[in-house]
Amino acid sequence: MNLPFSPCSSVGISANYTNSASGYSKFSIKPTCKAGCSLLKSSKKSPSLNVQNHKSFSRNIQIAHHRRHSIWACSQVGAAGSDPLLNKVSQFKDAFWRFLRPHTIRGTALGSVSLVTRALVENPNLIRWPLFLKAFSGLLALICGNGYIVGINQIYDVGIDKVNKPYLPIAAGDLSERSAWFMVLLLAVVGLLIVGMNFGPFITGLYCLGLFLGTIYSVPPFRMKRYPVIAFLIIATVRGFLLNYGVYYATRAALGLSFEWRFQISTLATKLGVRNIAFLGSGLLLINYIGSILVAIYMPQAFKRSLMVAAHLILAVSLTFQTWLLERANFTKDAISSFYRFIWNLFYAEYIIFPFI
């Protein structure tokens, strides 16, 4: 018996009946399904079955056909038998994205866009379309440098990450160390080429300094991350000075302007740890916010007072509340992770309001 699908289908069911020596019929079904989603309809004619025994079984088959039941058979064989190459590409894309540490990319991208926007807002008459292409290439170079720094840190922190961050691709076994080395070296070379061809020797020197600091932060025998003060200074230099100064300088240079020092508030990324470190970090950020409010009050000619005061008051209150929640949760792992994400949101918030204050 063959139950064929509609013409658009490539799915069929083959049923064979044979008589055994014992007088009982053997019933076997062999599905042949290639792909697709088709409408299976039973045949209007009764099948010709060579069944001598069990007439009731044959009669049931005929009744079932005369009722003209329609069966929707939706097969997703493509998902089960998908191309292995496509699977490998998809897995590599996921591992590579996790390898780049997306939350650090967001900070780098947002900071760069904010600083470029500020420079353009100050000089709208100098804006030209080619500048946007150059700005995009600069952002790509910064993402490459960021990827190199966080990537080389993962290569030398595999043992630690298997305990603290097992979801990272090298620690999880989703990315080999050899592939990781290839990617970090490629990111460094691409970033240097972009900067060298577009932004001149001074910015290229700053870019190389950032890569150097990121290297000695993680790579033995230096491994400066072992020393809290030095590690803090490296992070502050790369994230606080080189990123802000370098991007703003490069933008003004592209506009044909010389660099000018401005009053600006820098928010430093805070690493969470035990209770006293959490309170120390919160306290430093709170001092920044209070200082911003006081500067706006006493220097209205430099900042937009209403926005500066209101925004930093909201951030200060939010920080105090989140720190209270962290202590109330007794510094559990989930609470620390939530607070860590909140600190990053404060970091993003500063860049968002920066062009308008």
Order of helices and strands: EEEEHEHHHHHHHHHHHH
Average pLDDT works out at: 75
Task: Specify the structural class.
Answer: mainly alpha
Q: Report the count of strand segments.
A: 5
Percent of residues in helical segments? 55-70%
| Rg calc | 32 Å
**Strand proportion:** 5-15%
Largest sheet: 3 strands, antiparallel
* Head-to-tail CA distance between termini: 79 Å
Low-confidence region ranges:
1-81, 263-273
Number of DSSP helical runs: 13
Shape: globular
What is the spatial order of strands in the main beta sheet? 1-2-3
Characterize the structure shown.
- Helix content is about 65%, strand content about 10%.
- It is built from 13 helices and five strands.
- It has helices at about 55-65, 75-80, 85-100, 100-120, 130-155, 160-165, 170, 175-200, 200-220, 230-255, 275-300, 305-330, 335-355, and strands at about 1-5, 10-20, 25-35, 35-40, 70-75.
- The strands form two sheets. Strands 1-2-3 form a three-stranded antiparallel beta sheet, with no helix packed on it. It has a two-stranded antiparallel sheet with strand order 4-5.
- The N and C termini lie far apart (about 80 Å).
